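S.,

Sequence below, as promised.
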Amino acid sequence: MLQFKEGIKQAIWFLFAVWCAFAVGIWLQAQQTIRTISTVDELSGKVDEVRHIFNFELPYRAQHVDQVSLKLQLVYAVRLQLQSEYSDRWGGPDLTQLLYSTDRFLEGARTFIGSDSELVALADQLHNSRESASNSEQLRTMYYRLGALVLEAMFSDAATSSDTYQELDSLFTESQKLEQKEQGAFQRRLAQTSSVLAAHAQGSHLANQLLNPEFSNQFASVISSLEQKLMFYISFLVLVSGSLLAVVSWALFYKETPVLDAPIQPCEKTDTPMKPNPPEVILPTEKQVTEPSGEERMPVDVVKPTTPLEEENDDASSSAASVSVETDEPYIDIEKMLDSLSGDEESVRMLLEVFIQDHSEDGTKLRTLIAEGKDEEHAQRIAHSLKGVSGSIGAMPLHYISGDIESLIKQGQEVVTGKLDMLEDTLQKTTLFAEAVLDSENIREVLTD
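The prediction came back faster than expected:
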């Protein structure tokens, strides 16, 4: 009987240990699912913020180009966070399609915003070229006509009209009568205008793709499947716990039964009569089974973006960019970033981490591409991307020098070694400054150093 009781006790402890291991595994899976739901929901919200701006017309979007660029950086940061959680998880849902759709959305959104930004920059450059004191009266008049075409493209559908391109051909014919110096300058602006208007004409098609409701439906479908999986984990844990409790209760009840109901065996007859001994009654010992306390829930941090960073962007004057690099501006205006993000240090850290990860080697890439001279378009894209990202995080010295190099590549001029050295030096110091900010416990401490 003692061996039977000891066996029951060992079985109960074994089942309890198995239940603890199972409960911890289910709890960890449930916590991971909750974090993934939170990240997917956050990504969906940030994508909707960007899509909301695309519903407005170009004049409004042109005033919020920097705001949209900053929001796209936050979307990309959350997308990297979701990919990290997805790759580190065993048995999680398939998020490959959602990540692919997010990448397509980011690519289309950057192209769409890039066309708006180039159109606004073109208007500024035309104004600066027109106001040059060395212009003849005929050249000034032709700049006014070219500016009118850009204005029509911003406020009407003239960018897709054949009359617009006929007018551009007419201006090109007239420009051949100008002096050699004025002719070259005007024809460069004419080619730039034609390229920008062609990119802007594709804006409506891009807008339809970016506003496609199928992308939002993917988020809803993924969140729904994750919530179903979470309910399955909870239900399964409750079912197993109930089954274990039933087994333990049965074992405790069954332990008493054979002792209380055991029959008394009669003594065998012998030659010498003996007085039978009274039967021994063994009282059962009650066992108490304690159940473990519930696990503590782990909090889920959600990055909430706030208002974006505002900056000035002028691609027309490369000399102004060079002068700005030499001023005492900080490599990254952390104070301005905090003001634009309502003091949200987590968002600032996230943007700086993405900047270091994606752009720390851009100086070396640019030098290699320019030295080979084979892919100027790729080099221009790298310089343009670096200019936009540095402007969105307030790294104005890097913004100016990268914009200067982009302008030189776009105009087909030679990029001297000094420019590339200045870019690499500024990028290195900007990256070191960003790493110092990330290493500090309090971002505002860096401002006082």
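DSSP finds 17 helices and no strands in the chain.

Coffee later?
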